[in-house]
């Protein structure tokens, strides 16, 4: 399992990509998930690219953005093609977006059909550039629960259309993450890993709060300190080299929390690798 950090964690800090790359390399990360806003702002400095990052032994596993699913088709196509070009520049094979801007229960059938058609067209464009289009499991979208997400996969019906499995939001939507993981595994292209202290504090992850520099960070906790049980969820994934995930930390003390969580995952992987031999000895 390959683990990346996210540049969005540092959205309110004055830290360069070069500093992040040096730190990520020193702390056993394999990649840096690049926020779309950061990728666009770096476009004027073309020497920063996938080859440059590879010099640190790192990759961009995913370019995370917010493609429109409504409005003029010309605008949608232009934004999608621009994101595909940025993805190629960074040598990544994944672009992340969302399935609309309303929850599945609040989306009329005609509106849902239009979003599905848009996602299919964006998937076609992504495939033409050798990319996958990943929709994130997230409240306030058509991927807000397991039933709607499974239906969405059937509706879009394109091999380049996959999922970014945001484990916390799966749990928030009422599904048991490990159960849904088993159902969706063939369609999952990436994982986001974060946790919360209690269900009552899930509002701290509302976009309006997350993106506010003065937003509330209480309730955001390190990966193994919250309500979602990541030990059981990660167990079947740790030894799979084709699985990639990001520690999506939105709270304070970014370097310390990310360092701690990365070490905890490495320790979990070591324990899992030793388990068969321990059982044999017993």
TrEMBL record:
Annotated organism of origin: Oceanisphaera psychrotolerans
Protein name per Swiss-Prot or TrEMBL: 3-dehydroshikimate dehydratase
Domain of life: Bacteria
InterPro entries linked to this entry: IolE/XylAMocC-like, Xyl_isomerase-like_sf, Xyl_isomerase-like_TIM-brl
Span of domain Xylose isomerase-like TIM barrel: 26-261
